[in-house]
Structure formats: structure tokens, C-alpha cells
Amino acid sequence: MSLGPDAVKCCRALLAPTYIKQHLDIAPGTPAKALASYLVICLYCSRGSHYLMMDETSQVLHNRGHEVWMLLQTGILMIPGKGTFLRRDYLKEYEKWFADYTEDLLKGRYYFIIIIMHNFLRSLNCLEKTLNSLKDEKFDITVVDGFNPCSFLVAEKLGLPFVAVFPGTFANGPQVGIPSTLSYVPREELMSLISAIVQNQVQTKFENVIKEHFPAGSRPVLSELYLEAELWIYNTDFSFEFAHLLLPNTVYIGGLLAKPAKPLSQELEDFIANSEDGFIIVTLGSILSSIPLLEVLQEMNTAFAHLSQGVIWRCQHSKWPKELKLASNVKIADWILQNDLLGHPIAHLLVTHGGLNSLMESIYHGVPVVGIPLFGDQHDNMVRVEAKNMGIALRIDQLKADKFTRPMKQVIEDKRYKSAVMSLSTIHHSHPLLPDQRLGRWIKHVLQAREGAHLQPYTFQQSWYHQYLLYVLLFLSASVLGVIYLCVKLVRTAVFRIRSSGKQKQT
């Protein structure tokens, strides 16, 4: 990372003007002054979903009259119109790594990998000047990307209370104290088996950084920092998530990025008008803008040609093989406005990688899905998709034309999928508060209360043996054993005396 004060100011410039005069949360006659000052830390913005989530969070807070600064990591962010900070050597290294990894995935060679860029581990080194300048700004609170451990260390270095925004489901529940018993909280098998091991490995990566940048005697422990969040805010919703217990400091705002659809361009409307049976949307996420393998492109293109619907496919023109003729019912685009397309009246299907933002948008607009999970939480997300009957999951090694065509036709033609996702949409839309209202009001509550300690269970302050009442069990066990021992002694004594009395009578 190479962030300095100028980068912070530049990030801030990406937002709307800092001060606003009118908003629902601002009483009439209130001076044009920010209600509170926030620092939003997003140090894993090479993935578009993370950036979009943190950017929308910043906008929600800003629209409520707060001053918002956003600290971004240098990296790749291929989202048109959003801007980014690029460092050429890092960009080249990252693109090569991701291209190799993607090719392995598309060939069916899936392996679990911990994605931690070296930049994270060096971030505190490079952030020293930035941190010093940020301390002078007197922020009230910081909002961190809960996926990246480095965000917590930056907040700790600044000495600020923090709210953690996790860009996925309650997958890290055990890590932050949320009850996640497998007997009633289903999870994708691989995720449940290795998540604890992975978290331990992730935290181990940061031990040297902590030793280097925090003095002995006051070095934070990441597992404890996670429990110190004033709030944990999750990008999920119980229209999609399995119902289970939550802690008082847990808030869910799934669907924050989903919006009412805006009109499409005339070019897209003309294409859709020529598709009598409606159309489908195909996008495998903001970081997979093209398919690097010709054989995979051929299979997908052939599968789409077998559909009667039109296909709007996010795929880069510049990387489309010249020797492969595009199917007549397919339109490719470097970037698509997925939310607006999903909101079109004759959108019949979303073919997706299984990212949570995409799935929440499909629920919002009531469009069923066929998911091709690639990595990360996408497999776990697709477990929920199939359990809710809103679509079908397809393994990447099943991406052959006939096997790909079959589930797409099934989801489009079988009205049970559409009915299921419309029911989920009704659940989502009928929530008493909109996602942005939940986000804004809960953070406002924490600020007004000066802390979120009243929302944290006392168990966070207990050792593991106190949590499970082992000392009580030990005392009760000892008491029971003591009573049993005394009873046995009394019985043996009584028996001995009876026998002794009998012998005396015989003599």
C-alpha cells in the first residue's frame, strides 16, 4: 500500500459534498454542520463487492448529515465511474495471480486458498503518516470492513471505537460470539469444517505486524478485537438467511445495494424488444469480467444459443476470441447495470457466481437464479439458494453446453422457482425498516449512547470455562461424589457394626 494524506483527501472527494443542509434526520433550523465525523476503512477494495458495500455505507451516513472520510487501499477496482488508486506493480502481480487462479477454477481444480495480499501485512508500515494525520481529525467513530483483520488494527491504532461491516452472511458467527450450532444453522460442509482453521491461519499472519507496531503490554489480540465492535453489521437478510439466534449488537442490512430499477438505455431496450420470450442476465461478478478459456466460452455460448430468450452477458469485447461466433440471441457488454436489468418486467433469470449482493438484488426484484459458485462464500450462498428453492447451483466442472442449458430451462419454465423467489421478495420488502434506515439508526444509537457496551453480552468478558459453567459443574460433581462417598462410608460402617453385633451374640 502507498497511502498518504493526499490519498485520504482524494478518497473523500469521491463522496458528495461533506456538509448538507437538509435531510430527514436533521431537525428544521439545524445549522449546516455535520452531526458526527466518520472514518470508513476499506482495505480490501480490489473486490468490487467490498468496495460497493463500504461506499454505499458511506453514502448512507453522509446523506444523514454526517461528515464521512473514506480510506481506500490501492489495488484494482474495475467498476466504471467509481474511480480507483492504481499501483502498477501491485496491479500486474494481482492480475497474474488471479488469472492463474481463475483458470484453475474453470478447469475444475478447486482448492481452498487464503486470500491475503502482502499489502495487508505491510499496510501499517505504509499507513504511519496517514494515521498521524487522521488522528488530528478527531473522528467520532470508524466503520471498518469486517472481512479484513488489518482494518481492526488500524482502528485500534487510532484509538477509535468501531463498527464492523461484514460483506456476507453470518459465516463468521462463531468468531464474533453469534450462536451457530450446526444442528439448526445449516452451512456448506467444507465451510463449516475448515472455517475455524482458516481464521486461525489468517490471524497468525498478522502476529508479526502486531508485534512490530504495538508496544509490549498493549498489543491487541485479533480474536478479542472482533468482540470489541460496537456493532456487527451484516450484508444479509432473513429472506435469504436461515433463521437463528443473534446477539443484541448484531444488525442485518441485506439488500442495501438493491434499488428500484432505472430505465435502460435505448440500445438495451431495442435488444430486449426483439426477444419475444424475455431475457436473462449473465454476470460472474465484478472481478471476472471475461472467461480466459476458449473451451468454456464455447460451451457457454452454445448453451445460450439453445435458449429462446435473449441473453445479456457481461463479457469484455476486447477479450472475446475472434474465431468464436457469438450466438444470435446474445449481447455482450463490458459492464452491465445488473440491478436495473433485474428490475425489468421480462427479466426471467440471473446466471450468477453466487455473490451475496447479486443474490439479494435477485430477491429484491423477484428473479430466480442459476448459480456457478467459484470461491469464497459463493458455495455457502448457493446452499441457501437451493434450500429456499429460488434457483439451482451448478458446479464449474459441469459447465458443458447440455448440462448448462438444462438447469437454465428448468428454472425459467418451472414456475415454482419464480413463485419461491417472489415469496422471498415479499418477505424482504415487508420488513418494517429499509436496510439504509437500519444502518443509519443503529449507528446513530451507538453514537448517542456513547458506546455499544450495553448491547454486548457479559460472556465476552468471561473465560471459556466460565462461559460453559465448568467451575459450577466441577463443584456439583465434587458435591455429588462427596455425598456418594459419605453414603458408601455410612453403609459400610452400618454393615460392619451389624456383622460385629451378630458375632458377639453367637459367642
Automatic annotation (TrEMBL):
<dbReference type="InterPro" id="IPR050271">
    <property type="entry name" value="UDP-glycosyltransferase"/>
</dbReference>
<keyword id="KW-1133">Transmembrane helix</keyword>
<comment type="similarity">
    <text>Belongs to the UDP-glycosyltransferase family.</text>
</comment>
<protein>
    <recommendedName>
        <fullName>UDP-glucuronosyltransferase</fullName>
        <ecNumber>2.4.1.17</ecNumber>
    </recommendedName>
</protein>
<keyword id="KW-0325">Glycoprotein</keyword>
<keyword id="KW-0808">Transferase</keyword>
<dbReference type="InterPro" id="IPR002213">
    <property type="entry name" value="UDP_glucos_trans"/>
</dbReference>
<keyword id="KW-0328">Glycosyltransferase</keyword>
<dbReference type="InterPro" id="IPR035595">
    <property type="entry name" value="UDP_glycos_trans_CS"/>
</dbReference>
<dbReference type="GO" id="GO:0043541">
    <property type="term" value="C:UDP-N-acetylglucosamine transferase complex"/>
</dbReference>
<comment type="function">
    <text>UDP-glucuronosyltransferases catalyze phase II biotransformation reactions in which lipophilic substrates are conjugated with glucuronic acid to increase water solubility and enhance excretion. They are of major importance in the conjugation and subsequent elimination of potentially toxic xenobiotics and endogenous compounds.</text>
</comment>
<dbReference type="GO" id="GO:0071412">
    <property type="term" value="P:cellular response to genistein"/>
</dbReference>
<keyword id="KW-0732">Signal</keyword>
<feature type="transmembrane region" description="Helical">
    <location>
        <begin position="468"/>
        <end position="488"/>
    </location>
</feature>
<keyword id="KW-0472">Membrane</keyword>
<keyword id="KW-0812">Transmembrane</keyword>
<dbReference type="GO" id="GO:0015020">
    <property type="term" value="F:glucuronosyltransferase activity"/>
</dbReference>
<dbReference type="Pfam" id="PF00201">
    <property type="entry name" value="UDPGT"/>
</dbReference>
